[in-house]
Automatic annotation (TrEMBL):
PTM section of the record: Predicted to be exported by the Tat system. The position of the signal peptide cleavage has not been experimentally proven.
Sites where the protein binds Mo-molybdopterin: N76, Y79, E80, C134, T169, N217, R222, S233, V234, K235
Protein name: Protein-methionine-sulfoxide reductase catalytic subunit MsrP
EC code: 1.8.5.-
Names of required cofactors: Mo-molybdopterin
A Gene Ontology biological process term: protein repair
Matching NCBIfam families: PRK05363.1 (NF003767)
Reaction(s) this enzyme catalyzes, per UniProt: L-methionyl-[protein] + a quinone + H2O = L-methionyl-(R)-S-oxide-[protein] + a quinol; L-methionyl-[protein] + a quinone + H2O = L-methionyl-(S)-S-oxide-[protein] + a quinol
Top-level class of the enzyme under EC nomenclature: oxidoreductase
Family: Belongs to the MsrP family.
SUPFAM superfamilies from the UniProt entry: Oxidoreductase molybdopterin-binding domain (SSF56524)
Length: 316
């Protein structure tokens, strides 16, 4: 089997260039990162600016202060464009998110190819403010725009034999130059159990902050599973496949002892190299104290029952 070079930073590596640059941008705009914290209304009033600004608010949102847009679009993991947090914002302009189709197939009675223009019709869309908690120890609160994943999945009529859903990112080293290096097995693949995929919290995002998705956030279509670590939220999806077997997911293949298939946010199960008990909320400034991480990222009431009877220390 091929060996991959692991380049995952430790949880303490939270001060890199991207945070610095995003802070600097905010300061230049006349609003320090500390001001966004002290005055949550600052972040919220910035939420509706783009062509999708009129999309109505959907269910399940949090009312926490939004993470300023500069952090959401300037501090990213998207290894197809480099492994530094500042790389995707600098490099993702080579991605061409239109035209774009998503193939939905596998164990279904009606395989389907969906065009992104159809998914972008405002009547299909809603806004959901969800936290995103990266396994590396930082979190953001993001006003996503998109549609419930189940709305899309139901259209293909899954067969009884379907037990999992697999999601695959575009594989095109010309558009995604990071794919020329063996940092991960390309294309990036993620997966959910069928009941997780059909859960009303699972969301397909096409936009954020009132606008279509910036390339670095996974344009034109990415998954958002708010009770799981960020790496489950696969970006720039071209294929959704219903499967009978558990999918081979990118990080689980690379380092199975560090990244499980389930990857539910769990403050009680440490990563082998760092604690998962607390998190740093981007935008609050480096002096702000870290927040306690919540079981299932705060969505235990909605999703804990999916895992009844499972040992979440073993199935991490
Ligand atoms: N295709 C692809 N999807 C990906 C990743 C990636 O490297 N490639 N990184 C994941 C990780 S580790 C995180 S934390 C989130 C980050 O999403 P954001 O940049 O929108 O905050 O995207 C996830 N989806
Ligand atoms: Mo992550």
């Amino acid at each position: 089997m091929k060996r991959f070079r692991l380049s995952v930073p430790g949880a303490s590596a939270i001060t890199p260039r991207a945070v610095y640059q995003a802070r600097r941008q905010l300061l230049l705009a006349g609003a320090g990162a500390g001001l966004a914290l002290a005055w949550p209304g600052f972040a919220r009033s910035a939420s509706a600016v783009g062509p999708l600004a009129a999309v109505p608010r959907g269910p399940f949102g949090t009312d926490e202060a939004l993470t300023p847009r500069q952090f959401v679009t300037g501090y990213n993991n998207f290894y197809e464009f480099g492994t530094d947090k500042a790389d995707p914002a600098a490099n993702a302009h080579t991605l061409r998110p239109r035209p774009w189709q998503v193939q939905i197939d596998g164990a279904v009675s009606r395989p389907l190819t969906v065009d992104i223009e159809e998914l972008l019709q405002p009547k299909n869309l809603q806004e959901r403010i969800y936290r995103l908690r990266c396994v590396e120890g930082w979190s953001m609160v993001i006003p996503w725009i998109g549609l419930p994943l189940a709305d899309v999945l139901r259209r293909v009529e899954p067969l009884g034999s379907a037990k999992y859903v697999e999601f695959t990112t575009l594989h095109d080293p010309e558009q995604m130059p990071g794919q020329k290096r063996d940092v991960l097995p390309w294309p990036y693949v993620e997966g959910l159990r069928l009941d997780e995929a059909m859960h009303p919290l699972s969301f397909l995002a096409v936009g954020l902050y009132g606008d279509v998705l910036p390339n670095q956030n996974g344009a034109p279509l990415r998954l958002v599973v708010p009770w799981k670590y960020g790496f489950k939220s696969v970006k720039s999806i071209v294929r959704i496949r219903f499967a009978e077997q558990q999918p081979q997911t990118a990080w689980n293949v690379v380092a199975p002892q560090e990244y499980g298939f389930y990857a539910n946010v769990n403050p009680q199960v440490d990563h082998p190299r760092w604690s998962q008990a607390r998190e740093r909320r981007l935008g609050e400034g480096l002096l702000a104290s870290r927040r306690p991480t919540l079981p299932f990222n705060g969505y235990a009431e909605q999703v804990a029952s999916l895992y009844a009877g499972m040992d979440l220390r073993r199935d991490f």
